Amino acid sequence: MTRTPQPHPDLVLTEEVRDALAAGRPVVALESTIISHGMPYPQSVAMATEVEDIIRGHGVVPATIAVLDGRACIGLTPENLELLATSKDVAKASVRDLPYVMACGGHGATTVAATMRLAALAGIRVFVTGGLGGVHRGAPESFDISADLSELTLSDVAVVSAGVKSILDIGLTLEHLETGGVPVIAYGTDEFPAFFSRSSGFKAPMRADTPEEIAAMMRIKWALGITGGLNIANPVPAADEIPVEKISAIIDQALADMDALGVKGKDATPYLLGRIVEISGGASLAANIALVKNNAHLGARIAAAYAAG
Ligand code: PSU
Ligand code: MN
């Protein structure tokens, strides 16, 4: 069974990533919106570098993905990471933005959706991030549902995240994933985690306790021809979590500030993330960085288990 298709010819792969994929060695994709629009500088670039190091520490090749000068790049240099973290000319690029950013020859930091699509085109099956987009609170009025959810029904990539934070409607996000046929697997817990907190009040649809179980689900899903991804929800380490009561008040304040300013559309998520960092006095950033690193350990182990199968 061949699980590693040839990378799409329009992609630019680093030699390290190309060699690993050709040899069937494990590779983990990483997104870049989290670097450009998800965290402040310089913590953003430090996080991106540390996460790559964690993945390498497991003997797995990291492939951070972005559009640079109009080219879809799979695997980035330290200079590329610095540019994404500092340049004002980096667009937040979801799937629908890829043709535009690439045709203009611009820079695009890829969201979960765009990163999944490019990872799949490269033949990468595991992707690590912090938080997924989802169904926004108020979506029944605003229709604001992240393209990350539709992409999970289309691209064959397992996405490791820390659950969904309550800037989103967690219940509606889980319903949407169910409709899309996306397995949602909590790691080592029965509860679906809420990003900053281990607890959301929602039971997880599925549970796994080892990377091997997750790799088995990936193999079976795709062998059956059930297209699309899987979402692995890995709770923030207990030592790094922010209690629900504390983060709820902060999120409510950030949502109220967003409404007062009239921020919406693709600016909503970056605004909220930035505002939460401000209101929490940096506590949310520390938790965010810790959970991404924790996800990197798990994602690398899943990629290794999948490649070994
Ligand atoms: N949640 C986070 N950090 C992030 C994002 C979400 O905690 O950086 C980013 C991801 O790139 C995600 C995107 O794919 O925001 C979702 O944006 P939207 O809601 O506009 O689809
Ligand atoms: Mn949106």
Describe this structure in words.
The mean pLDDT is 97. Helix 3 (43-57) runs antiparallel to helix 4 (78-86), helix 3 packs parallel to helix 13 (283-308) and helix 10 (211-223) crosses helix 13 (283-308). The termini are close together. The chain is globular, with a radius of gyration of 18 Å. Helices cover 46% and strands 15% of the residues. It has one domain (12-308): Indigoidine synthase domain (Indigoidine synthase fold, 3-Layer(aba) Sandwich). With 309 residues, the protein is α/β, with parallel strands linked by helices. The longest helix has 26 residues, at 283-308. Strands 1, 2, 3, 4, 5, 6, 7, 8, 9, 10 and 11 form an 11-stranded mixed sheet that branches. It has 13 helices and 11 strands. Bound molecules: pseudouridine-5'-monophosphate and manganese (II) ion. This is Pseudouridine-5'-phosphate glycosidase. Its EC number is 4.2.1.70.
